[in-house]
């Protein structure tokens, strides 16, 4: 995920007590992005709530459990199903939506709203975003899902961007 600036705007401090997840990596496969987050922030307290979700066959894949830091929880979850977690600070999706038709992506993003709390939670989508037209397309797509784009952060040396959205 690298270092990307985040969208402006004051938000409440993150809950690091473990009462609600800090970071839910939806469709996160073997948890590489969550591991990178933990590498960048090794001072996160145990139980801060880093969760990697993916299909049961991915979460039980040989070696999947052993490859994760013990601070990261693996959870079987189909992103079309209602989200079982609530109050997450950040719901993150890396490459999941790129190969789905718009109607299916709307369903996926609607299910991701479940763990979000208005004024606190953000959906972070790590994706290639081309200027202007692509930004408009993302705004419409997320709008259909009950979300709104807060900002799109670009790293000067990367082709990917982070789309930051919140409940509309």
Structure description:
The structure is a single chain. With 168 residues, the chain is of the alpha/beta class. The chain has one domain: Rossmann fold. It has helices at 32-40, 56-59, 102-112, 133-144; strands at residues 23-26, 50-54, 72-76, 90-93, 122-128, 147-154, 160-167. The radius of gyration is 15 Å and the shape is globular.
Question: What are the defining features of this structure?
Answer:
168 residues; alpha/beta; Rossmann fold; seven-stranded mixed sheet; 7 strands; 24% strand; globular; disordered N terminus; COMT-like; O-methyltransferase C-terminal domain-containing protein
Low-pLDDT sequence parts: 3-10
Strand content: 15-25%
The CATH H-level superfamily is Vaccinia Virus protein VP39
CATH class: Alpha Beta
Output the strand order for the largest sheet. 3-2-1-4-5-7-6
Report the order of strands and helices.
Answer: EHEHEEHEHEE
Distance between the termini: 25 Å
**What's the number of extended β-strand segments?**
7
The helix tally amounts to: 4
Q: What is the total domain count?
A: 1
């Amino acid at each position: 995920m690298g270092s990307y600036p985040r969208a402006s705007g004051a938000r409440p401090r993150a809950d690091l007590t473990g009462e609600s997840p800090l970071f839910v990596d939806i469709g996160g496969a073997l948890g590489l992005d969550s591991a990178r987050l933990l590498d960048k922030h090794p001072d996160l307290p145990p139980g801060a709530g880093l969760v990697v979700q993916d299909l049961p066959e991915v979460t039980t894949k040989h070696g999947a459990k052993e490859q994760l830091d013990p601070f990261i929880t693996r959870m079987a979850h189909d992103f079309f199903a209602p989200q079982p977690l609530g109050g997450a600070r950040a719901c993150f999706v890396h490459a999941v939506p790129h190969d789905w038709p718009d109607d299916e992506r709307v369903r996926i993003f609607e299910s991701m709203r479940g763990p979000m709390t208005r004024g606190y939670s953000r959906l972070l989508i790590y994706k290639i975003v081309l200027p202007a037209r692509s930004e408009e397309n993302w705004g419409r797509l997320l709008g259909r899902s009950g979300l709104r784009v807060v900002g799109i952060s670009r790293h000067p040396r990367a082709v990917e961007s982070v789309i930051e959205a919140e409940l509309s």
